[in-house]
């Protein structure tokens, strides 16, 4: 579906209009004595339509009561746009642990504040938010601020108490029966949610085109600690699958130490049987499927690596169209995944002066890509693994060859915190005219056809789908 651009001017107009709509309501509230909870304006509708997800069932649209009172710190956000991403595909398939179905998905959204309680929120400069402000919010919420990860190691993305909008908030739970995700006309924002006003010039459609992948990519590039002039490889540039053959015989007999030795020690019979089979049969290729990410995190990694001053950004992906797009995002070199692995390694070495890349960012989601990353990174380089969001199985590496002797730093990357969220928006507001994030959007869906959008992302026919629950003209 073709989309007209939502101009920032139009949203300035909407912002003014909304402020005017709320003016009378605000006047009524002047000098009003607030209690611990605040009544919600009768300007708002009595009911909210929201999408509801259950495992492997069609998404339904259900009605929720508009909250009549807000506890101190809570906000009602009228949704302008949310998104459908790879996480939603995994959620629908029941692949994520600890999800309290049924839920309203949509962990990243942008909207305007339709109602708020007293002292609902201030920004990081202490400026209070007001009704009518166009804001987005950090999807990660309720980190405890009291555990080892929050206080000592300062890695709040591993706080066990953290909740995520659109993922770990049930439709019925401690906050009552409410839609707490972006696939909804209105979103209930719990007390303590961290908001950011969209900067002037950054319109909601552009912002949502980066969406959740923006924060994740910025975190991954932070982890990579890219220096000016570094060479960077990004594995995976968007949603795709690729099929590749591996020679099991070669892999088995090339194993030095590690699993082969353990197998000899633990189960010599099995080792001998396997060896016999591999020696006797001539055809030992197995088909491996690179199940690449549903999400364009890799594309934003390319953009951020390029902005960070990398001398070369080399992208490996299974599809030429995505590689072409990666060039627009800042890639200097591209390599098709169908190129045999030996040649891929040679190409990267040629580009990097024979050493391999200073940094490899694995954003593909295919476990075998992690092994490939070890082959492409230089001795003493950094390998960041950000694509393995769900468990797709094991991969064989040789700890001596790939890690110890190679002196490689391997860095996992999970989730994002407020600093990633804040800086991602800051960078996007400055760079979105040069970097074509918005071109990644392939379709817009409302609550009625949201199953089509989820299917399109699942089948990887489009890179980015936006959700427009209030049918705002795009
Ligand atoms: Zn904590
Ligand atoms: Zn997402």
From TrEMBL:
Query: Which one of the record's GO molecular function terms can you name?
Result: oxidoreductase activity
Q: Could you tell me the keywords of this UniProt record? A: Oxidoreductase
Q: Which CDD domains match?
A: MDR_TM0436_like
Q: Which residues form the Alcohol dehydrogenase-like N-terminal domain?
A: 72-200
State the Pfam families in the record: ADH_N, ADH_zinc_N
Fetch the InterPro entries from UniProt.
ADH-like_C, ADH-like_N, GroES-like_sf, NAD(P)-bd_dom_sf, Zn_alcohol_dh
Looking at the record, the residues that make up the Alcohol dehydrogenase-like C-terminal domain are: 296-429
State what protein this is by name.
Alcohol dehydrogenase
